[in-house]
Amino acid sequence: MANTKSIHGEWSSRFAYILAATGSAVGLGNIWKFPYITGENGGGAFVLVYLACVLAIGIPIMIAETMMGRRGRQSPINTLTSLSTEAGANKNWHYLGWMGVIAGVLILSYYSVIAGWASAYVFKAIFGGFSADAMEVKATFDNFIASPMQLIFWHTVFMIATMSVVRKGVKSGLEKAVQLLMPALLALLLLLVAYAMTTGESYFKGLFFLFSPDFSEIDSDAVLTAMGHAFFTLGLGMGAIMVYGSYLPSGISIAKTTLYIAGADTVVALLAGIAIFPLVFANGLEPASGPGLIFQTLPIAFGNMTGGWLFGILFFVLLVFAALTSSISLIEPIVAWLVENKGYTRDRASIISGTITWALGVTVALSFNAWSEFTILGKTIFNALDYLTANLMLPIGGFCIAVFSAWVMHDKDVRDELDIPELQYVLWKYLISYVAPAAVFLVFLHVLGIF
User: Fold this and answer.
1) CA distances for 260 relative to 15, 132, 269, angstroms
2) Cα 405–411–413 angle (5° rounding)?
3) Cβ atoms of residues 15 and 255 within 8 Å
4) Cα(181)–Cα(189) distance, integer angstroms
5) What pLDDT score does 249 carry?
């Protein structure tokens, strides 16, 4: 039923796809969120639970989403339409594609604002904006957040960078960007790890915190946090992996490439922890500093350390690169749909989708200052969008992907697309049919406060 190739083109090789999909998965969640939630949940035991969740939940759903993308060879919306027709299922499944596409736009609208913060902090680092004084660092951050024009300016810069990549298409845009950004990201991260190794006792204290499990620190909340992050860090349920899978050439193993991608994503998160926690301990800071760890705690460390000027610059450049590799995948599903269904050129589709996302992002930027009093169900615009996407839309999307691939698609079609040994297929089928949907459902109940 499916097209042999996507009208948008294909990745030139398996390696190009792995880089692109890893770039989609690696983002602020790895370098900003993973270290602070690990710090809040006791370290090593949380890491082990997280790794188990990646294996049992994240990887099976990622295989399913990639498989669906390559089977359909279109944007997520049109892919779900084609696959439900092939399976003789209810046509309303295409709303799953719509939900993923809309989630990607909503996420990028606030993701771009946060990425703008990282972009601004590159220049703050260059011009010596970091201090060893905690009050001064906090004042710098508070003044920055309070300025609508600064936030909107940096949000605009980041959105222009994102759309300038997306408009060039699969090979000339997405593929070339990740071939440059991903090796640079890894090199920067390894440089920071190398610096962390020079902190002496603090380096080993950081490693001990990250890899020595103390299960007395783990409670049900920590397990559910690990489960949720394992799912969200791979970028599942928002159409990005599905649309990237639609550009994957036939004959390339979906299961093997997914293992490589999940492995690389996890390694980046762990390397971020290895780089960050020794700096935190060396400067007598608190690992459980929460979301402020990156923008309010680490600048103090960079202000204290020898060579902190250079490593502060490198760290925030790393954050921007990680954000950009994710942002291009968030907007690609809606661009692909506009090209397929409206006959637009990629240039026009990119401008339209980018402008809509940018405008939403402006309201997010204003929610930190001028519009901070405006709330939706008691939440600012930023918090409302974050809650809607991360806590509602993505879990529902992941759950539905698992159900569709396991219970709606014909088994023969799934086997044909995956083409893996019987024992591996049976294991994947069990995980995607029972374990993954049950786990995602528990996360969903938890975030709603029901469980």
Assistant:
1) 10, 40, 14
2) 85
3) no
4) 12
5) 92
311's CB contacts (< 8 A; 6+ apart) are 191, 192, 195, 302, 305
Token pair, residue 266, equals: 């996890």
- Please list, in sequence order, all residues whose beta carbon lies within 8 angstroms of the beta carbon of residue 157, skipping any fewer than 6 positions away: 116, 119
**Contact, 26 vs 264, CB < 8 A?**
yes
Amino acid type, 358: W
Superfamily of domain 14-447 in the CATH hierarchy: Hydantoin permease (1.10.4160.10)
For 3, 30, 192, 314, the CA distances from 189, given in Å and listed in that order, are 39, 11, 5, 8
Q: What token pair was written down for 412?
A: 């023969």
Question: What's the length of the chain?
Answer: 451
pLDDT in tens, 139-169: 888 899 999 999 999 999 999 999 999 999 8
Q: Using CA atoms, how far apart are residues 76 and 338, in angstroms rounded to an integer?
A: 12
What residue spans of 167-307 are helical by DSSP H?
176-196, 201-211, 220-233, 240-246, 254-282, 292, 298-304
DSSP-assigned letter for residue 249: P
What span, in angstroms and rounded, lies between the C-alpha atoms of 63 and 243?
Answer: 13
Q: In whole angstroms, how large is the CA radius of gyration of the chain?
A: 21
Q: Are 37 and 264 in contact (CB under 8 A)?
A: no
Given pLDDT bands bounded at 50, 70 and 90, which one contains residue 105?
A: very high
Dump pLDDT digits (tens) for 54-81: 999 999 999 999 999 999 999 999 999 9
Burial class of residue 135 in the structure, from the number of CB atoms within 10 Å of its CB (0-12 exposed, 13-18 middle, 19+ buried): exposed
Helix (H) and strand (E) counts in the chain: 23, 0
d(C-alpha 175, C-alpha 169), whole Å: 8
Going from N- to C-terminal start, the domains of the chain cover 14-447
Say how far apart CA 367 and CA 187 lie, in whole Å: 35
**Residue listed under structure tokens 């090796």:** 183
Distance CA 58, CA 263 (A): 11
Torsion of Cα atoms, 314 then 318 then 319 then 321, to 10°: 140
- Residue 78's CB is within 10 A of a number of other CB atoms, namely 18
* Per-position b or e across 352-373, b if 16+ CB within 10 A of its CB: ebbeebbebbbbbbbbbeebee
Structural contact between residues 133 and 314, judged by C-beta atoms closer than 8 angstroms:
no
Residue 290 has pLDDT above 70, yes or no: no
